[in-house]
Amino acid sequence: MTTLFYLLGYLAVIGFVAMACIKIKTYVQASPLHVRWELYPVPHEGDRAARGGSFMEDKDWWTKPRHIDHVGDIKALLTEVLFLHATFEHNLKLWFRTYPFHFGLYMLMGGTIILVLVAILRLFGVNPEGGFLTFVFNVINAISMIGMFGIIGGGIGLICRRLHDEGLRKYTTPEHFFNLGVFIIFAVVGLVAWAFNGSFARISSDFIYNLLTFNFEPLTSSTFGLHMLFGFFLLIWIPMTHMAHVVFKYFTYHDIRWGDTPTNYSEENKKKISEALKFHVTWSASHINPEGSATKNWVDVATSTGEPSKDAK
C-alpha cells in the first residue's frame, strides 16, 4: 500500500503537468486571432500606460522599431494574480470571499515550493534537525495553518455567495459546489493532520524528500496520508475543470486583453489572417453575401463589386 501511495503521488504530478500542457497547446492551436479590445492603458506601454497612451501616438509608428516594457506586463500580472485586483475594483463583495480562498492556496503552494527546496538541501547533506531547517519548518507550520483556514473560510464564503447571490446563482452548476467542497475537505483534513501531529511541515518535508529519493518509507500519520490523497485528486482534477484558470488565465485573459501587436510587426498574425480569409462565407445576409453562395470565401466577398438587391430587407 505504501508503494501504491507514492506511485499515486508521481502520477498526480505527472498528470497535472501533462493535462495542463495538452489543454494549453490545444487552446493555442484552436483559438483564432483575437479581435483587439482597444482597452488602455496596456501595461507594456511603459510611461505611456500611466495616461492611457499607446505607441500609435508616435508619428509614422509603423516605420519604427517597437519597444515593449515586459516589466510592466509582469508587474500588472503579479498584481492581478496575487491580489485579485480586478475583483477588488469591480466586485468587492465577491473579493472578500474569493481572496481568502486564493490566499490560502497561495500559502500552501508557496509552502510546498519551499519544502521542495528544503528536500534538495537535504539531498546535499543539510541536517533536518539543525537550527536553520527547524526554523524553516516552524515558518511552514504557520503558513500551512493560515492557508488551510483561508481555504476553509473562503470556500464556505464562496458557496454561500453562489447560493444567495441571484446573479451568480444563474451561472452556478453542481460542479462549482463539488470543486469548492473538495478543496474544503482537503483543507479540513490537513488541519486535523496539522493539529494532531508533532510537525506538519516535517511530515510534509519527509514525504517530498522520499518522493525525490524514491525512498518509499511508510507514512507516520494516517490523517496526513488522507490529506495527500485529496491533494492528488485535486492535481488531476483541476486541469479538467473551470478552476484550470490557475494555468490558463494568461492565455484566456491577459494575452487577449494586452495582445496589441500590429499585423505588420507579426509574421504569425499575417499567416493567421491569410488563412482566415480563405474561410468560406455561409452568411446569407444581403450586405455580406448578396448572392448567397457558400462557395465564396472572405477574399471574394471583400473584393466583390456586387451590391444587395433593391428589394433586400
Question: What share of the residues lie within helices?
Answer: 55-70%
Give the H and E element order. Answer: HHHHHHHHHHHH
Poorly predicted runs of 5 or more residues: none
- Tally of alpha and pi helices: 12
Strand content: under 5%
Shape: elongated
Structural class: mainly alpha
End-to-end CA span = 73 Å
* Averaged pLDDT: 89
Largest sheet: none
How many beta-strand segments?
0
Radius of gyration based on Cα positions: 26 Å
How would you characterize the overall build of this protein?
With 313 residues, the chain is an all-alpha fold. It contains twelve helices and no strands.
Blueprint of the fold:
Elements: H1 2-30, H2 70-83, H3 85-90, H4 92-123, H5 131-164, H6 166-169, H7 174-195, H8 200-213, H9 222-237, H10 245-258, H11 267-276, H12 298-303
Task: Describe what is shown at a glance.
The protein contains 12 helices and no strands. The chain is an all-alpha fold and 313 residues long.
Features:
313 residues, mainly alpha, 12 helices, elongated
